[in-house]
From TrEMBL:
CDD domains attached to this UniProt entry: fer2
Keywords: 2Fe-2S, Iron, Iron-sulfur, Metal-binding, Oxidoreductase
Name this protein carries in UniProt: (2Fe-2S)-binding protein
Native source species: Pendulispora albinea
Cross-referenced InterPro entries: 2Fe-2S-bd, 2Fe-2S-bd_dom_sf, 2Fe-2S_ferredoxin-like_sf, 2Fe-2S_ferredoxin-type, 2Fe2S_fd_BS, Beta-grasp_dom_sf, Diverse_Oxidoreductases
Domain 2Fe-2S ferredoxin-type per the UniProt entry, residue ranges: 2-78
Oxidoreductase listed as a keyword: yes
Domain of life: Bacteria
UniProt xrefs under PANTHER family: BLR6218 PROTEIN (PTHR44379:SF2), OXIDOREDUCTASE WITH IRON-SULFUR SUBUNIT (PTHR44379)
Length: 152
């Protein structure tokens, strides 16, 4: 065990864990942030996407050592009050069905909008292609991303 320091949603966390532990385990089981979901554990579904130093990463295959000294943002920290434009658009358009994939979808979309505030449909589709939704909410996801970007 090694103590690793990671800033998570603006708060410094001291993690006394195996450095090879997946970041997802540290977030969910050690810190208690369960908004980020475990889908496949193999970087295939996108349910576990969080931001590490501003970039979207799949927390299920990211060893926690990679986050040491860095900053992680999870769905809980995307906005202080759940009022990020994407979260508002998601609610207004009633995007989720079961909801399981949605945190990952929103975090991938947030990373896109941070780089491209007015993405095209093709750019939205490309950025979210790795986020699977077994409920098939893709059309509403794209509409919500467009709405959040002020491009309805
Ligand atoms: S749980 Fe990480 S990509 Fe599926
Ligand atoms: S809303 Fe159910 S998997 Fe996407």
């Amino acid at each position: 065990m090694t103590e690793l320091v990671v800033r998570v949603n603006g708060t410094e966390q001291k993690l006394d864990v195996d450095p090879e532990m997946p970041l997802l385990w540290a977030l969910r089981d050690v810190i208690g942030l369960t908004g980020t979901k475990y889908g496949c554990g193999q970087a295939l579904c996108g349910a576990c996407v969080v931001h590490l130093n501003g970039e979207p990463v799949r927390a299920c295959v990211t060893p926690v050592r990679r986050a040491a000294g860095g900053a992680v943002v999870t769905i809980e920290g995307l906005s202080p009050d759940g009022n990020h434009p994407l979260q508002r658009a998601w609610v207004e358009l009633g995007v989720p069905q079961c909801g399981f994939c949605q945190a990952g979808q929103i975090m991938s979309a947030a990373a896109l909008l941070a780089k491209k505030p007015r993405p095209t449909d093709a750019e939205i589709d490309e950025s979210l292609a790795g986020n699977l939704c077994r409920c098939g909410t893709y059309t509403r996801i794209r509409a919500a991303v467009r709405k959040a970007a002020g491009n309805p």
